[in-house]
Structure formats: structure tokens, C-alpha cells
Amino acid sequence: MSKVICIMGESGSGKTTSMRNLDPKTTYYIDADKKGLSWKGWRKQYNKGNKNYLACDDANIVRQYIKRIAEACPGVKVIVVDTVNGLMVADEMRRSKEKGYDKWVDLAACVWDLVCEAYTYRDDLTIIFTAHTQTDHDEAGYMFTRIKTSGKKLDKICLESKFTTVLLSKCVDGAYKFETQANNSTAKSPMGAFDQMEIDNDIVEVMKALEDY
């Protein structure tokens, strides 16, 4: 069973930047937002020539690539999908003229199946999904942050429920951090994996901490 991690956060909170220390030789980056990465020199690390970068917002194609990489590229140890919202929004826009409930069921199933399938691959593979967040207020005025989804169907199935690790990226006093446990959010991590509520924004260190889980 492969490991699956979700990094959620607002735009500019450091989701993509947290991938900066991954080894490009063993990482495949799927840029579903088609905006490029966020650190200097990334174009030399991730590109078509190196066969480790794909700009694509079609969830079905992304699923095919993940399956192919998992089965035929044993040297790839990490696959990043940045962001799952890029896939959701693109699918929604491609079907914008369609009417009816079925469209939203199909959209929910597409994303749900993508995440579920990610667990079925080899043990030495880690698949990282990034996601944008939205913050809601209840009647008492309390804020709660969760993964932003397209349509009420995905809200009902709760995408976070498919992950054992959901880290919330945030900027604290100018420093980029990960929130490891729920604090008015759907952030969570395995018991004992992290000693602190907030840790440095570095996915490599996160993966090391999760090696035994």
C-alpha cells in the first residue's frame, strides 16, 4: 500500500514551496494548476526533458499517469499532484453547459476515485495531493477551515476522510509552517508522528516522520 498525504492551505500559504527539498530524480510533479512551481531554479529540476513534470488538469489523464508511473517507473518514489482543486475546477468548467445532478455525481466520483486509487500502489511510493482551503463561519461566529470542493456532493463525502495525514499550510509571523492537528480545521496526523502542533514547512521532513506509519 502506498502512502498518501494531503497538504491543504490558502493560495500563497506555502503548499507548493514545501516540495522544494524533494529529490527531482525520484519525484514526478503533476502541475494541475498549470502555473509552474514557486522556487528559483525549478525549471531545471522539473521539465519534460527530465521526464518528471506534467502540466495537466484532466483528472482521468492524471490517473493514467499515476498508474503508469507506479507500475513502470520503480525509480520514482514520490508523485505530487498540485492541486486537486485544479482538477475539480477544470472538470467543472469543461462541463459547464451540462445541466442536472449527474454532473456533480460524476465530478465527485472522479476526485474520490483518484484519491482512493492512490492507496493501491507499491509500498515504496508516496503520493502527495495539495488542495486549496475555504474557511466557513458557523452561527456562533466560529471559523472552520477545510478543503475547498466543487459542489455539495464532495462536501457530503468529506474528502479529508480519505487521508490519514492532512496538514494545513500557513504563514505565522512571516514563517511558513504546517499545522499538524485540528485547530478549527480538518488538519490531522497519526498519533505520535509529530510532537508539535506546528512544524516547519518541509514535506521531506514530514515524510521522514511518517516512515513508520
From TrEMBL:
<feature type="domain" description="AAA+ ATPase">
    <location>
        <begin position="1"/>
        <end position="154"/>
    </location>
</feature>
<protein>
    <submittedName>
        <fullName>ATP-binding protein</fullName>
    </submittedName>
</protein>
<dbReference type="GO" id="GO:0005524">
    <property type="term" value="F:ATP binding"/>
</dbReference>
<dbReference type="InterPro" id="IPR027417">
    <property type="entry name" value="P-loop_NTPase"/>
</dbReference>
<keyword id="KW-0547">Nucleotide-binding</keyword>
<keyword id="KW-0067">ATP-binding</keyword>
<dbReference type="InterPro" id="IPR003593">
    <property type="entry name" value="AAA+_ATPase"/>
</dbReference>
<dbReference type="Pfam" id="PF13479">
    <property type="entry name" value="AAA_24"/>
</dbReference>
